[in-house]
Amino acid sequence: MSILHVGETALSVGSWVVCSIGMMLFNKFAVRAFPAECTLVALQMAVTVVAMLLFCARSIRIGSFMDVLRWSMVVPFFTGMLLSSILALKFAPMSLVVVFRTLSPLLSLMIERMYPDPLRISLHMVGSIAIMLVGACMYSSAVHRSGLGGICWVFLNIFFAVGDRLLQRLMLAKDQSPVDISKTGITLLNNIEGLLPLLAVMLIKNEFADIPEAVASLTTSGYVWVTLSCLVGIAISYTGIWAQSMISATSFLVLVNANKFVIIFIEAFCLQSKILTPMQVVSACVTIIGGVMYGKARDTLEKDVRTKREKEPLNRPRDSKV
């Protein structure tokens, strides 16, 4: 692996982590100020589409109509991930969302085993998964029932997030079955096609009737949070695809766990919007540390597999001449 590739991988993951922290915080405040959640997500998508067309038109490349059809399988998961994330943040504390999202690699790993080129499972990976599960159980036991409101949206968000990352990995990674679409092209397709199912949901729940009241109740700070959520939405749409094209789906879901410490710190000690007990803080840290350990174990296994494959041609016996 070249230094350039390592640098690009670090930059892509780092950019996504920063955008992820900003997106969670800004969405938390934005959905409070503008409770029409479907409309908020649709606005974020529309702003991203406009930004792609205005500033990235030259870099948009779509190979064929078949590539578009293949990528369309990702869109429902992308839209569901954004909407369920907003709803989870609306009804549940950020720390609860953070802890249970850490378990995403468990589901991701089970499905990723069916890939054309799956990885083995090591003992260290199993151990780190056990640590994550113990931490999540400890956190849940320390939460009052009233604090578990919105847990269904958290699990639904995990489902959509895992599906989105796995399909993106399958269609972006060079060692799998990539599509011939540029990163900006994928960002454009995600947000244009994603508006269609979102509009359908808005019709079903009759949210169009709530938009005038939601807009009228917006304060100056509310406009600021909504604007910031839209701007970060543009960045996270691109950086998410960029990072996913550089690393595996499971690694992507795990390596970004470092930002979870920041989220819990901000909510508990800066915003003070949710008072966390010592047991909750410890259990959340245990879960996140388990996720980080899993990422390390996964990376070690990936390196071992690559090294073994590189040595295989050298170890093959030469054909003897008769």
From TrEMBL:
Reading the lineage from the top rank, the first entry is Eukaryota
Coarsely, its chief localization is membrane
Q: Which residues cross the membrane?
A: 6-26, 38-60, 80-100, 121-142, 148-167, 188-204, 224-243, 250-269, 275-294
Localisation per UniProt entry: Membrane
Keywords noted in UniProt: Membrane, Transmembrane, Transmembrane helix
Query: How does the protein associate with the membrane?
Result: Multi-pass membrane protein
This protein is called: Sugar phosphate transporter domain-containing protein
Q: Which organism is it from?
A: Prorocentrum cordatum
